[in-house]
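Subject: Protein record for review, amino acid sequence with backbone structure tokens
Concerning: The relation between a protein's sequence and the shape of its backbone.
How to read it: Take the token row as a discrete description of the fold.
Enclosed: The protein record, placed directly beneath this head.
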Amino acid sequence: MKITLFCRFIVGIDISKQWLDLYLLDCKTRNGTPYRVPNTKEGFCQLGRWLETQQASKARTRLISEHTGRYGEHLLRWTTQHGWSHAVVKTTALKKVSGEHHRKTDKFDARQLAEYGDRFSDRLPQTEAPKPAVGQLKRLQAERRGMVDQRASLKQKLTEADLHDADMGRLTDMWRQQVKLLSEHITELEERIRRLIDTDPALSQRHQTLRTAPGMGPVLISLWLSLFAGTSELNPRKVSSRFGFAPHPYQSGSSVRGSMHSSGFGNAEVRRVLHQAALSVKTHCPHYRDYYNRKKAEGKPHLLVINNIINKLIRLYCAMWNRREQYDPNYIQKKFKQSA
């Protein structure tokens, strides 16, 4: 039986703030070579030269690392610019290959990543660094999210200040000042996000399309763009599942525990904003309002119907994204006329 090797070499990379621990696995000879370079531009160049000395060309080599946030951004940008095939996987990937639960070193993790890349080479994603505008949008969106959470926490403290027996006068003044300052900074960030979208042709075009959709406000648009800008096709089922809205069965053998339900897990900000979008269209859009009232009359719980509306919105947003078409408010009526 003929076996096709996708790559001759797999390089596992464990990323830390200061170092990159590498493990070069030769899939043909099964030999491995560890190496370490600094997590700097000079270290990336050193990595490229070392791979050349190991006869690991770009056409025969696959790099694999875990998603480590900021520590891996510069490496991903370097591999994208220099044409290296690079896969960034979830931090839970090593659980599929690691049999030693008590061992944890950077060198060991690099070797395990190489082993994971060898076993699942046909499933590895091709990861590329986002364009500068998209990267800047992600950064601004993350900062805004952090400030919004801080402001909400301070507002909660203000509502509970009267419940304390101690003198809270000075503290409440400090909290109000912080809330005011955070509100000013959030407004400034939102203005920077708006200017960034307007000045980038690709983001601006996507923005013009999404803004016509029901439930799509400024916050949801910028969040959606920060998540999916650079992606040409979106699968609504995967998007719903990613953010915990898709219903899944729960059964084992003959045991079935209840009906299908969504997990409720996922990006908290996405879930919160989409929930608000569903409440908005339920109130202001006749089609979704009629659907909500009909399901409530059937005895469906409020949150279940809202979750269904969120899935409807996700399917709509993904369809608009994939077709690059603006929302047509008469689309549903046209479909009914065609089927009649």
Remarks:
- Residues 9-123 form a domain with the Nucleotidyltransferase; domain 5 fold (CATH 3.30.420.110).
- The chain has twelve helices and nine strands.
